[in-house]
Design brief:
By secondary structure, the chain is an alpha/beta fold. It is built from nine helices and 49 strands.
Amino acid sequence: MAHPNPVPPPPSAWQCCGHGADAEDPVGCRGVPVPGNGACLAHLTEIDRDTYLDGLAPGTDIDHRGTPFTEPLLEALLRALHDPTIGKPHFGASAFQEAQFYGDASFREAQFSGTASFHRAEFFGDADFVEARFLGDAGFHRAQFSGDALFDEVQISDDAEFDEVQFSGEARFYVAQFSGYTSYNAARFSGDARFYMARFTGEASFRMTHFSGDVWFYGAQFSHNAGFSGTRFAAMPHFGPVLCAREVDLSGAVFEVPVTLEIAARRIWCARTRWESTAALRLRYALVDLSDAVLSSPVAVTTHPAPFEVMDTVADESLLEGAGSGVRVTSVRGVDAMHLVLTDVDLSDCLFSGAFHLDQLRLEGRCVFALTPTSLQRPIRLSRWTRRRTLAEEHHWRARNADQPDPASYEDPSPRHWRIGPHHPDPHFTPDPEDVAALYRQLRKAFEDGKNEPGAADFYYGEMEMRRHDRTGTPPSERFLLWGYWLLSGYGLRALRALGWLAAAMLVTIVLLMGFGLPNDSPKQNVAGTVPPGGGKVTFEINKTDPQNPTGDRFTGKRFEKSLNVTLNSVVFRSSGQDLTTSGTYIEMASRVAEPVLLGLAVLAVRNRVKR
């Protein structure tokens, strides 16, 4: 049932033709009147229309805002603007805002020398802009394409605006070239969208766009940023290969079906991106930020080892000249790592704090972590660090607490120092040792589940380091034990350190035995007995003199040999049988406790490094 008082449409922003105005539509036709006439091009008399068209020349500026075009009327306009020198229709500045095109609208090979505006225009049939040339801006804001929209090989030399456009049919941009800023923000693609081999020289924005059908960006190249923030891909199985000279922004994007993304870019931002099905990200060069991404199914991030192929040829990666070919993941904060698989990526700067189920993270191939500095220059001494894999959070914490005489050195950190990190020196964002220890513990389990025991050993070392430095969560007695464990054997992971202490302990034992433990001479035995007068059983008593403390020259080759024999036997819990002084007995007892422990720690360290 019709509304008893229909609301009249709002008046246009220009003087209107007014044809067909009545009580229900007081405005009538919204077409701009042709200069010198009171009617628009569609409602001119045949004589006036012919007169107007005959007066047009190629390159003339035209204004047909709000004008309804039939196929014959549009063809007549194109014939009037035909340029015989180029063999194509030639428009100057063109205003087609709110124009309606009934039937098919063909601007094939047309050239627009000035600004071309099709804002809020309606195309009720197919719209053909194949090989059209726009030398100025091209505006299609809020235009509606009921049929197919064909922009194959179109060239737009300045900005192109397709914001909030409705594409009901297929939208094709094969080999299209966009030289300025290009925006498809909040556009709706109900059919398939084809950006096959498209070239975007300026920044391209597809923010909040909705792709309901299949989407092709096969071989597309972006010389500037490519923004897909908040974009929804409802049926896209494959994205790319895409080359981007700067950043591909997928933050807040939604992928509803299984998808494979092949992207070569300097940076890929996937913050709050949502994958509702499985996904494989095959990437090159990129810094990848996965902060707060939502993974409902397994998602794999992989470094693609070779340039992508486009039409059986190797993609031209000159846009990315100077960028490193490896993929670096910079953050997985807020990610449920249970569904995340990282393969052959660089995790040197990756922030893991705030992620969930890190113990179920899968690390495949060669995943690189940050290493400890080669050395730290301090005011008094040069401290050496054993090379091991570390987390970026440990670097940030150590850099914040480093004893640096010149804080300005943090602005340009040397590879010989701990990395400052993006949040250093803000204590609100830099994790405490207790938090870093928890990260190491979870990732150590991930390595162990992947049967990578050497990798797990490095993370066990990192966990123990953080516990040793944790002054709030670790009791002082436990920290004292951890200091000793670290000093003697590097938490049972540094065999050379344990062997070094063993050699030092043996050397000290030998010196002490030579100096105090071995007697001057081996004690002699005295035999005494009593023979009964009438014969019978004879009883003998064997006495041994007490060892005498050494005097004179104690450090001789013979005494060294005896001391070495006693020390070696003590390492394996054996008694040498050597006569010792009282001091020597206690020295041997101490060595039989300490040295086998050090030997065991060295064996344990070797085992932790080689077991599988």
